[in-house]
Write a structure and sequence with these properties.
The protein is of the alpha/beta class and about 725 residues long. Helix content is about 30%, strand content about 10%. Among the domains are: about 240 residues, Rossmann fold (3-Layer(aba) Sandwich), CATH 3.40.50; about 270 residues, pyruvate-formate lyase- activating enzyme (Alpha-Beta Horseshoe). The strands form 7 sheets. Strands 2-1-3-4-7-8-12-11-10-9 form a 10-stranded mixed β-sheet, sandwiched between helices. The longest helix has 17 residues.
Length: about 725
């Protein structure tokens, strides 16, 4: 992996003479006060503007400002016309378009495709202030406002739609968002390196169409450039016959046999001039000039098996150390993906997170409360990335498997900034974490092995022997953080990866005795081997070992604390029997789910490829390869959620009917050994899901305790990937 240019060492643009803005301007009046006649870059975002490093637009804006550029923000514009996109005037360099910290479709709709009533990233939590598929709409309006201005799209929504992708909300495969947005360049993954380089190159007079060599970007081109070696993806990981065998006796529309028609086509093809050279192996010296051709958009639309194959290749080519460029044809246009960006160094991470953020919403919002900001205003990001590889999660696809950690000193300095400057601080840091709480400074023991590795997970089916699981640096950080003057408590709200934690009992002790406020969220997600193998999650025995340690150390400290397990309903690979087993486990252990979450097939996730194709892309995909059970349809999804809420009387009629169908009527009755009773309380059981829609109600989540109740009431929060910064909310990632 070649070294990357330090993002803090670029020569500053001439506009740096204007200095640092108190807030990045959202109006011409603010620009006038700063002495600006124009903006160099305008960031358009679907979120309210909060100048905090947990919000993507703040990181990108302050990063570009530190490079000397004048950056304006257009937050949650009215997309009904182009006028709101002209409010700051014409940008000198480009528009940067992002849907915000969440995918706009995940933000707007539940996993059952119901419209949400709120939006945590909007003042007052008001819903409906961003359009569906925000990146496409914003990009088109920006183009309408100022034709000819380059448009760069990025953030979680664009990142996960960089190639042809299955769209759950329309139940079809959509083409790359680059085409629909009519953008010039797409930035995927964590975008600091890309956005800084783009800005400086455009400022130097380079045309946006000439920026084709930048890692972590995707763009359109008409033809394959000279000097490249093209590799057919099916030669790397053959999916089997692309089409079913031809019936030699079947007739075509012209009265001839299809076999004869196919033979004629093959003969014509053989006599045609060969324009592409496909090879099975490429010398190491040629890797930088090799590109893998994925099945075309038209192929993956018509053939789910080819879609699963393309998904598998995309995930195999995700390591910055060995990934090659990818290309996918859409009609007469090639969508070209350069390899992923080089991860930021610790020094660069420190620099990014210590930029002069105000750590508050823009004054434009007055006293209006922005729920997402309220959740994260006292939290600190200590790392990025995740090597868990959970198939339902988008973190790895977006941020990558390599952990990028801040230095201990930088984290402690930010805690002091929060203590001294953030209004309302009471001495409690709400979280030290990231996508996962306990991957800080964990990495492969060998840089050479890390660079060559193509495994999708470092911890499944077991922890890789090459992975350094030493939690000592994280333990030391916790101790120093809580020892700072004025700090009363440091909580850990990010999800704990418990299979890693049990490798360090000292970490579990530190966590249980000092950093848990009564409840700790972890995510077994399932207990049956069927769904666990499709999620790439550890078995329930690992959970049991962690619980034993957690309970022991909590008791030693004289604390009564509980684990809050999260589970997913209707995940690929899950049968009704798996959900029944889980319901019995929940009852045996005294858990009652307050709210539950059904699987949501997010774009580009491996589990989404399973959902669409019925195949398992964790292994080589062929016509005869492993079939995956898919709980599809609203009725099945309701049933699986009902199993998780077995205690809800509104679900009892559905569960009784299902248990009889499954031959498990022995679980219906009044005893403790029964799952549901035979009787029905008056006024209940009117709908399959109960009197109110419980799934996905609180998409950003938190632990719900009922007064006077001795046991915890866990629930499942909306699980999505991350944008340029950490997703706000008590549960920050997977565990």
């Amino acid at each position: 992996m070649e070294p990357a240019r330090d993002i803090s060492r670029y020569r500053k643009h001439w506009a740096s003479r204007f200095g640092t803005a108190p807030f990045l301007p959202m109006s011409r009046a603010e620009m006038d006060a700063l002495g600006w006649d124009s903006c160099d870059i305008i960031v358009v975002t679907g979120d309210a503007y909060v100048d905090h490093p947990s919000f993507g637009m703040a990181i990108v804006g302050r990063l570009l400002e530190a490079q000397g550029f004048r950056v304006g923000i257009i937050a949650q514009p009215d997309w009904q016309s182009a006028d709101p996109f002209r409010v700051l005037g014409k940008p000198n360099l480009f528009f940067g378009i992002t849907a915000g910290n969440m995918d706009s479709m995940v933000n707007r709709y539940t996993s059952d495709r119901r419209i949400r009533s709120d939006d945590a990233y909007t003042p007052g939590g008001e819903g409906g202030l961003r359009p569906d598929r925000s990146v496409i709409v914003y990009a088109q309006r920006a183009r309408e406002a100022y034709a000819g201005v380059p448009i760069v799209i990025g953030g979680i929504e664009a990142s996960l739609r960089r190639i042809a992708h299955f769209d759950y909300w329309s139940e079809k495969v959509r083409r790359s968002v680059l085409l629909d947005a009519k953008a010039d360049l797409l930035v995927y993954g964590n975008g600091e390196r890309q956005i800084v380089e783009i800005a400086h190159r455009l400022a130097a007079g380079e045309a946006i169409g000439d920026i084709t060599d930048l890692r972590g970007t995707a763009f359109m081109r008409r033809a394959m450039p000279e000097g490249w070696v093209e590799i057919d993806s099916t030669h790397l990981d053959a999916p089997g016959p692309i089409n079913p065998p031809i019936d030699p006796y079947a007739m075509d529309d012209n009265g001839g046999t299809r076999a004869a028609t196919a033979a004629s086509a093959a003969e014509a093809s053989a006599s045609a001039e060969t324009v592409v050279r496909f090879v099975r192996r490429v010398k190491s010296s040629d890797r930088s000039r090799s590109v893998i051709r994925l099945p075309a958009f038209e192929q993956v639309v018509d053939d789910p098996v080819m879609y699963a194959h393309a998904s598998r290749i995309l995930h195999l080519e995700a390591n910055p150390g060995n990934a090659r460029a990818l290309v996918q044809r859409h009609g007469n246009t090639e969508i070209w993906l350069n390899p992923p960006p080089i991860p930021l160094t610790t020094a660069e991470m420190d620099w990014v997170y210590e930029l002069p953020y105000c750590r508050q919403p823009h004054p434009f919002y007055g006293d209006a409360e922005i729920p997402a900001y309220k959740m994260i205003r006292f939290s600190i990001s200590i790392q990025r990335g995740c090597f868990g590889g959970c198939t339902f999660c988008s973190i790895t696809e977006h941020e990558g498997r390599i952990i990028q950690s801040r230095s201990e000193g930088s984290v402690l300095r930010e805690i002091e900034v929060v203590r001294d400057t953030v209004p309302g601080f009471t001495g409690v840091i709400s979280d030290l974490g990231g996508p996962t709480a306990n991957m800080y400074r964990l990495a492969c023991k060998s840089r050479a092995i890390e660079t060559a590795c193509r495994k999708p997970s470092c911890v499944y089916p077991g922890i890789c022997p090459n992975l350094d699981t030493d939690h000592a640096p994280l333990i030391e950080l916790y101790r120093k953080a809580r020892a700072l003057p004025g700090i009363k408590k440091v909580l850990i709200a990010s999800g704990v990866r418990y299979d890693l934690a049990i490798e360090s009992p000292e970490y579990v002790k530190e966590l249980a005795q000092h950093h848990v406020g009564g409840y700790l969220k972890i995510a077994p997600e399932a207990i049956g081997e069927g769904p666990l193998s499709k999620m790439m999650k550890p078995g329930v025995g690992t959970y049991d070992r962690f619980k034993e340690l957690f309970d022991r150390y909590s008791k030693e400290a004289g604390k009564q604390q509980y684990l809050i397990p999260y589970f997913i309903a209707a995940h690929p690979g899950t049968t009704d029997e798996d959900m029944l087993e889980l319901a019995l486990w929940l009852k045996k252990n005294g858990f009652r789910a307050d709210q539950v979450q059904a699987f949501l097939p997010s774009p580009m996730a491996t589990a989404t490829a399973m959902y669409h194709s019925g195949k398992n892309p964790l292994r080589r995909v062929t016509r005869g390869s492993e079939e995956v059970v898919i709980p599809r349809g609203l009725k099945v999804r309701r049933l699986h959620k009902a199993f998780l809420r077995y205690h809800d009387a509104n679900n009892w009629p559905l569960l009784r009917e299902t248990l009889r169908r499954m031959g498990r009527a022995d679980l219906i009755g009044p005893g403790k050994q029964h799952l549901v009773p035979t009787w029905q309380p008056a006024g209940t059981g009117q709908t399959p899901e109960g009197a109110r829609a419980r799934g996905d109600v609180r998409k950003h989540g938190g632990v719900s305790a009922v007064p006077g109740q001795s046991r915890p009431r866990p629930f499942r929060t909306q699980h999505t990937g991350l944008p340029d910064a950490r997703r706000p909310g008590p549960r920050r990632g997977k565990s």
